[in-house]
Amino acid sequence: MGGESKRRLPRIEREQILTAYRAGPEAVVSLFEYLQDTLLAVIEEHELRIQELEQRLKQDSHNSSQPPSSDGPARRAYPKREKSKRKPGGQPGHEGTTLQRVAVPDRIVVHRAARCSCGHSLRQQPLEGCEKRQVFEIPRVQMEVTEHQAEIKRCPTCGRQSRGQFPPEVKRAVQYGANLRSSLIYLKDYALLPYGRLRELMQDMFGVHLGGGTLFAMEQECAQGLKDTVQQIRKDVASAAVAHFDETGLRVQGALWWLHSASTTTTTYYHVDPRRGKPAMDAMGVLPQFTGIPVHDGLSSYAGYGARHGLCNAHHLRELTFLWEEGKQRWAQLLARELRRWKRLVDRAKEQGRDCLSASTVKTIEWWYEHLVHMGLRANPPPSAPQVPRRGRKRRGKAGSLVDRLQQNRAHVLRFVHDFRVPFDNNLAERDLRMMKVQQKISGTFRSKEGAEAFAAVRSYISTIRKRGANVMEAIASVFAGRPLLPPMPTFC
């Protein structure tokens, strides 16, 4: 037995054994029964732990919440899809994206036919036609320096000195322009280039030599200019009828912090916090005043906000898939199949312009759900009370924990059936967090709390701008001009 088992098993001293021997057979039997119950409890706990570790080895992205990047090339799991009847390639009616010729090119280069292959000169021959080919190219961009000069003059009447006014954006003796700064923020916080690679790019392409401190200062300036705009974004999410919530870990100064997201189809808000649970959600400032339906993955901290929730059924499908493939639990296969079928029913009803399913259909779905969950409870009955009292809840294992959650949260699981505004899954929030994980893989840790918060603020703005159909470069440039662009939310949302 390992060190952990020795700590759990009580040590019986020699004097205690002799005392039980002198007390008679019943005392010896009681001592042995106590030791046996304790040993069995420890063995049972270790067996559960071994089972969990074995199950973890069999998990990948298709049957758990692990990301596909964690599968590795040898275990890369691809989703099972039904074979399509379509032929490979573009489908009939699909508009192609082939490069098209323009009517009026910016520049024309003539390649003259000067001599025939037989050697005769063709310079004096009349032109019969020409073959045209067009090349689309980006001209080489070079740094352009504009010097602003404010004239200083003296009035001949009063002798007072006056000078011309610089434009509002020209604040320093030497500075970078708004176009260059917005390009850097685009590359840093949207294209996710790390500081070092961004400096190399600017030097190689434009001959601009930038320091890491300069880039950091630009990002801080952009985040400061977005202070009021980001608060408006937060209010837009808080006032939504349905919003998606999720969180993921990120490294700040080498320590584990958490990036929290709150988003809709038109708005994204990010918050960086060293905590994951309710204190961080309160500090984020969305859920405490949110009156709509939050959609999330079931983290217990969300339960403290409101009574009507929507749970991510994509998570449930992956867990049910694991229980069927590895545990051969039939109820899990049936429930996963039914969840997919119910999603198709809802999608078809939405396509037909309906806003709800018929009452009989909803009643049938609820009956089937209860029936399949009860099958799961019968297959995974609650554990019996231990003979040796122990603190804490009895561990249920992966199957037991899942079926308990499905039973306790039946209304939240089926929210997409009762309310068509609520989606089947929480994929919107996961998509909003995906690029943040890419940033961590590329750049690693944030070196300061201020850098992480500035990145979250700028990224909140960029994601919202993209969702509302505006140009990201123009939007970032508007921040440096002191007039941040924030298109209104579409009326259909």
Topology:
Layout: H1 3-8, H2 14-23, H3 25-57, E1 152-154, E2 161-163, H4 178-190, H5 195-206, H6 212-225, H7 227-238, E3 242-252, E4 255-263, E5 268-273, H8 278-284, E6 293-296, E7 310-311, H9 313-327, H10 330-351, H11 359-379, H12 397-408, H13 410-413, H14 415-418, H15 427-443, H16 449-467, H17 472-480
Parallel strand pairs: 3-6, 6-7
Antiparallel strand pairs: 1-2, 3-4, 4-5
Helix pairs in contact: 2-3, 4-17, 6-16, 7-16, 9-10, 10-11, 11-12
Lateral arrangement of strands in the main beta sheet: 5-4-3-6-7
Low-confidence stretches: 1-7
How does the major sheet shape up? 5 strands, mixed
What portion of residues is helical? Answer: 40-55%
Structural class: alpha/beta
Distance N to C terminus: 60 Å
Q: What is the N-to-C order of secondary-structure elements (H for helix, E for strand)? A: HHHEEHHHHEEEHEEHHHHHHHHH
Radius of gyration computed on alpha carbons:
33 Å
Average of the residue pLDDT scores:
86
The total count of helices amounts to: 17
Strand content: 5-15%
The number of distinct β-strands equals 7
Shape: extended
Care to describe what's here?
This protein has 493 residues and is α/β, with parallel strands linked by helices. It has a domain at 3-44. The longest helix has 33 residues, at 25-57. The radius of gyration is 33 Å and the shape is extended. Residues 1-7 have low confidence and may be disordered. The protein is 47% helix and 8% strand. Helix 2 (14-23) crosses helix 3, helix 4 (178-190) packs across helix 17 (472-480) and helix 7 packs across helix 16 (449-467). The protein starts with a helix and ends in a 13-residue tail after the last helix. The chain has helices spanning 3-8, 14-23, 25-57, 178-190, 195-206, 212-225, 227-238, 278-284, 313-327, 330-351, 359-379, 397-408, 410-413, 415-418, 427-443, 449-467, 472-480, and strands at 152-154, 161-163, 242-252, 255-263, 268-273, 293-296, 310-311. The strands form two sheets. It has a five-stranded mixed β-sheet, with helices on both faces.
